[in-house]
Amino acid sequence: MKEILATLLEEAFAIVERARKGMKRELEFPKAKNMIKVAIGMRRSGKTYFLYQTINELLDSGISKEQILFVNFEDDRLLPMDAKGMGELIDAFYSLYPENHNRQCYLFLDEVQNVENWHLVVRRYFDSKNVQLYLAGSSAKLLSKEINTSLRGRSLALEVYPYSFQEYLAVHKIEIPEGPFGQASFDKMQKPLLNYFSIGGFPAVQTMQKNEWRNTLQGYIDTVILKDIIERHSITNIALLKYLTITLLKNTASDFSVNKFFNDIKNQGYQVSKDTIHNYLEYIQDAFLIFCVSHYSESERLKQTKPRKIYAIDSGLVNAAAISFSNNYGRVLENLVYLDLRRHNKKIYFYNTSDGCEVDFVTVNQEGDRELIQVCWDMSDTKTFEREKHALELAEKELGIKGKIITARGYLGEV
């Protein structure tokens, strides 16, 4: 085990060094000591790179390489891996560097959910050794299930997303106009925004040509469906799962009703129960492909009975799944605002007024402060302006919450 570990570490630190040339993510693990740090997010969103970034920060602070263990549990040389093998691998790290028994070490365990009962090993080392533990994985549920039981109160989670628009600008070295944000500034920034809408924020596709990034993103969708849903949950109705996934991506920033979808597919000849659709929907969310947002209400029954709204992890995936969304900039901007709100750890809902108008977001921050947000690509059309303004004003009156309208120009002016 020590021989393979030495090879893995040698390779890992070579990659860690190369990662210094990449862009620093706008992410940071919580500083709390004596807590397990957890990074979760969709495959290829940058979790592993973020771990490399954190390792480089430790090295720059004076921590030696010998104090750091990095293991990716998707490495084929480690498969199959169980809890016993995982424990032996970490034991080998201490055998390789015996001095580590008497000093603090830093263990980075990537895609740890692939190891059954991984939490038992993590808890043993957390309790018995002087360690800082960093975990990463692409399953919200599998990680949170063990974290909330075996590791309760001992961990802090951080969601890792593809590049934000601000990070996209930094990667492509696009300068943000200074001074008042007028028409000239808007015209300059609109093209990068539309390009970001098209390719999205996944790091690996940023320098690819059109056909390359589209094929790559379609491959991401297929890989998540296969590795994180079909294999993980032993799915047999693969055609239905793929159809549901593409349907959700194509309908981002729109309502989704399980009942309506059930009736649609029944008419197409699918033999499936509503419970199966609910399960598939949960699995797709667990893999971070999409997010479901509930109606804002004090009534849990009303939240459950009303259709939910769907948002995607990345606009590039939406584009890859659809023929075109050139006429749907409003929905893509709404999806972008939703992701920004999630990055700020806000609870997010939508709201339907008493006369049936919709307000895109009701947000609640960690202090309990609430805000209404209406998203509109362009408010120059009088009819559109009056409709959005009416919905917002009525929601403000009904809920007693202040709100605002975000347009493309307003969004770019705040970047």
* Helix run count: 16
Spatial separation of the terminal alpha carbons: 49 Å
Q: Point out poorly predicted stretches.
A: none
Order of helices and strands: HEHEHEHEHEHHHHEHHEHEHHEEEHEH
Radius of gyration: 23 Å
Total number of beta strands? 12
What structural category characterises the helix and strand content? alpha/beta
User: Level of helix content?
Assistant: 40-55%
Mean pLDDT: 92
Count of discrete structural domains: 2
How would you sum up the major sheet?
5 strands, parallel
Shape: globular
* Quaternary organisation of the protein chains: single chain
Strand order of the largest sheet: 2-3-4-1-5
The share of residues in extended strands comes to 15-25%
Q: What layout of secondary structure does this protein have?
A:
Blueprint: H1 2-18, E1 36-40, H2 47-60, E2 68-72, H3 83-96, E3 105-110, H4 118-128, E4 131-137, H5 140-149, E5 155-159, H6 165-171, H7 183-199, H8 210-233, H9 238-250, E6 254-256, H10 258-267, H11 274-286, E7 290-293, H12 300-305, E8 308-312, H13 315-321, H14 329-343, E9 347-352, E10 358-364, E11 370-376, H15 382-399, E12 403-407, H16 408-413
Helix pairs in contact: 3-4, 7-13, 8-13
